[in-house]
């Protein structure tokens, strides 16, 4: 896929579906989510299957002195993850670390929140022009999660390793709805089935938040500085 196609068609499709979907899904507040999605949020106040994600407390109290929000609105070859990693490098010798990175996976950066089976079934890499550094071909798995050593710029920028070290992630619920519907045909399923599969296919430890822009704002409200991830 050409750079021109990557930069225009998916974005136009995303924005078109977003405009139509917001009305259809009642986005005067937030998009509805399934019970499975609600279980993945930071604060599950109830078992309701309607209404906004129960993540009103995300990202929670961040007690470290240094805290930064990385706005991952694109995959950008994984650089949003590299930024989260490098933010903590100066404090690597300090225990516990006085720094916390918060990564908001939204817009075209949202697919980084998905597990390998979703990438494979829905052909996300080919459609979005995301290459797997291990194969040098369109990614058939999430190249940023549980990657083989030596394939990423830095092994420790892997999502699994960032989660293990305390990096806070949030995945945009709006992008979840829009992209799952957009890729449903590629997976040979209806948009409703795609939404269920994508919701269940979020990487463990990454909560679904009402929207990415909401997450960017919330992170700054609790004291994070801002870093553009793409």
At a glance:
The chain has 230 residues and is of the alpha/beta class. It has helices spanning 3-24, 35-39, 79-88, 116-122, 124-128, 159-164, 173-183, 191-200, 212-221; strands spanning 66-72, 99-105, 131-132, 137-138, 168-172, 208-209, 225-228.
Fold and architecture overview:
Helix content is 37%, strand content 13%. The chain has 230 residues and is α/β, with parallel strands linked by helices. It has one domain (3-20, 36-43, 64-90, 97-228): Hypothetical Protein Ychn, Chain: A (3-Layer(aba) Sandwich), CATH 3.40.1260. β1, α3 and β2 (99-105) form a beta-alpha-beta unit. α7 crosses α8 (191-200). The longest helix is centred in the N-terminal third of the chain and has 22 residues, at 3-24.
């Amino acid at each position: 896929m050409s750079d021109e196609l990557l930069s225009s068609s998916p974005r136009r499709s995303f924005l078109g579906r977003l405009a139509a979907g917001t009305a259809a899904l009642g986005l005067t507040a937030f998009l509805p989510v399934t019970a499975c999605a609600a279980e993945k949020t930071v604060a599950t106040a109830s078992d309701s299957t309607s209404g906004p994600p129960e993540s009103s407390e995300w990202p929670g109290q961040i007690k470290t002195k240094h805290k930064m929000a990385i706005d991952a609105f694109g995959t950008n070859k994984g650089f949003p993850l590299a930024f989260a990693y490098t933010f903590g490098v100066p404090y690597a010798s300090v225990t516990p670390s006085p720094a916390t990175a918060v990564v908001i996976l939204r817009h075209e950066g949202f697919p980084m929140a998905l597990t390998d089976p979703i990438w494979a079934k829905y052909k996300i890499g080919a459609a979005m022009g995301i290459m797997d550094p291990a194969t040098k071909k369109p990614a058939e798995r999430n190249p940023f999660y549980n990657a083989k050593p030596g394939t990423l710029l830095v092994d420790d920028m892997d999502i699994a390793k960032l989660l293990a070290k305390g990096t806070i992630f949030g995945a945009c619920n709006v992008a979840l709805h829009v992209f799952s519907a957009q890729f449903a045909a590629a997976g040979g399923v209806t948009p409703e089935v795609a939404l269920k599969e994508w919701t269940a296919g979020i990487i463990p430890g990454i909560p679904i938040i009402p929207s990415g822009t909401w997450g960017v704002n919330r992170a700054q409200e609790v004291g994070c500085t801002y870093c553009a991830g793409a």
